[in-house]
């Protein structure tokens, strides 16, 4: 399967490094980093494109062996995301969701033997619910979390509480899942055993809490929270202990801080930031990637492209960055991959 535009030897070598294989059938789009991005990013590859049948694609995560990714994409002619995997050696793309309803937030089990994702396929009423807080994504009342084998078979429902259950990810040992739910009237962070038992609420602040990920050592959970709940979407980065104690903020500013993700060592994290007040100035807010520490005491900007950059994740070895972007003149977001150099401030 061909990727868009002409091939590049350096990018093919990058994908070979991912797979550990000596050959690759990829033809990939290689885009140069913009300005200071070159200090951190090289060999930028566009992994998905509309020629694959995807209107848009994003929120991709690596398999534990880094040979494949799982992501969400909207098929052409459809309005909602489905879940797909891509083999980074062959380029084979497989839909692993049912093709019905809306889907979001897929993730690999650390063993590589299971995946999870959220879906409305059991009750695919796609009417947008009211009271979504003005966020760009929809909190479907019929969204639940499901487990499956990596090819989508042996699908098992893990949550069945009324309301939105989504944004799930596994703990490093694979024994637990952390997720977002509004089952108690507010969007908060919850945890459960990997089989769906022992579902417990961890955060209790007013406003949206979501996008949680366990720290590499499994002791704490990184997430985004809108504790002001004032309609201005000033999400902040937050950390709570895995047992729900010591919930605290990393950032406290007047901008949009979104989709944080841990660096594999646990001493740094990456996230997206945008100033939504730019709308009032007649400007488009620019979404870029930044890094900070769990204490929030150092901040480094990673991307400087004028187009949207968001939803960043690291490969398990920390040597690659994968994110969702509209760079290169794209009309809709697609998935990008690059070699990553950790800023010296975090080494």
Can you characterise this structure?
The protein has about 350 residues and is mostly beta strands. It has a single domain, classed as 6 Propeller (Neuraminidase). It is built from one helix and 25 strands. The chain has one helix at about 10-20, and strands at about 30, 40-45, 55-60, 70-75, 80-85, 95, 105-110, 115-120, 145-150, 155, 165-170, 175-180, 190-195, 200, 210-215, 220-225, 235-240, 250, 255-260, 270-275, 290, 300, 310-315, 320-325, 335-340. The strands form six sheets. A five-stranded antiparallel β-sheet has the order 1-2-25-24-23. A four-stranded antiparallel β-sheet has the order 3-4-5-6, with no helix packed on it. Strand 15 (about 210-215) and strand 16 form a beta hairpin. The model is unreliable at about 1-15 and about 15-25 (pLDDT under 50).
Q: For this structure, what is the CATH homologous superfamily? A: TolB, C-terminal domain
Radius of gyration: 19 Å
CATH class: Mainly Beta
The description of the largest β-sheet is: 5 strands, antiparallel
CATH-derived topology: Neuraminidase
Poorly predicted sequence stretches spanning 5 or more consecutive residues: 1-13, 16-27
| Cross-sheet strand order for the largest sheet | 1-2-25-24-23
List how many beta strands DSSP finds.
25
Taken in chain order, the helices and strands follow as: HEEEEEEEEEEEEEEEEEEEEEEEEE
Beta-strand proportion: 35-45%
How many domains, in number, for the residues?
A: 1
């Amino acid at each position: 399967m061909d990727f868009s535009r002409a091939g590049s030897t350096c990018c093919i070598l990058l994908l070979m490094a991912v797979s550990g294989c000596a050959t690759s059938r990829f033809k990939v789009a290689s885009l140069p980093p913009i300005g200071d991005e070159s200090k951190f990013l090289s060999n930028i590859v566009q992994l998905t494109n509309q020629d694959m049948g995807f209107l848009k694609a994003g929120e991709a995560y690596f398999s534990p062996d880094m040979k494949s990714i799982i992501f969400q994409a909207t098929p052409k002619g459809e309005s909602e995301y489905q879940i797909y995997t891509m083999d980074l050696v062959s380029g084979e793309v497989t839909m692993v969701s049912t093709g019905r309803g809306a889907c979001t937030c897929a993730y690999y089990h650390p063993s590589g033997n299971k995946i999870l994702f959220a879906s409305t396929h059991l009750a695919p009423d796609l009417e947008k619910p009211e009271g979504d807080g003005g966020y760009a994504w929809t909190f479907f009342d019929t969204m639940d979390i499901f487990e499956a084998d990596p090819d989508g078979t042996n699908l098992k429902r893990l949550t069945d509480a009324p309301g939105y259950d989504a944004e799930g990810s596994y703990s490093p040992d694979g024994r637990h899942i952390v997720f977002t739910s509004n089952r108690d009237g507010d969007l908060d962070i919850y945890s459960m055993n990997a089989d769906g038992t022992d579902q417990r609420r961890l955060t209790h602040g007013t406003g949206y809490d979501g996008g949680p990920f366990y720290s590499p050592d499994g002791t704490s959970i990184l997430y985004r929270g809108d504790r002001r709940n004032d309609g201005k979407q000033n999400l902040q980065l937050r950390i709570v202990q895995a047992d729900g104690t010591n919930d605290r903020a990393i950032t406290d500013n007047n901008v949009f801080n979104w989709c944080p993700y841990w660096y594999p060592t646990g001493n740094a994290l990456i996230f997206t930031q945008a100033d939504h007040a730019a709308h009032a100035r007649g400007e488009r807010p620019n979404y870029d990637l930044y890094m900070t520490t769990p204490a929030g005491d150092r901040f480094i900007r990673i991307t400087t492209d004028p187009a949207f950059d968001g939803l960043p994740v690291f490969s398990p070895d920390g040597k690659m960055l994968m994110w969702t972007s509209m760079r290169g003149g794209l009309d809709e977001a697609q998935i990008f991959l690059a070699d990553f150099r950790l800023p010296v401030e975090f080494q």
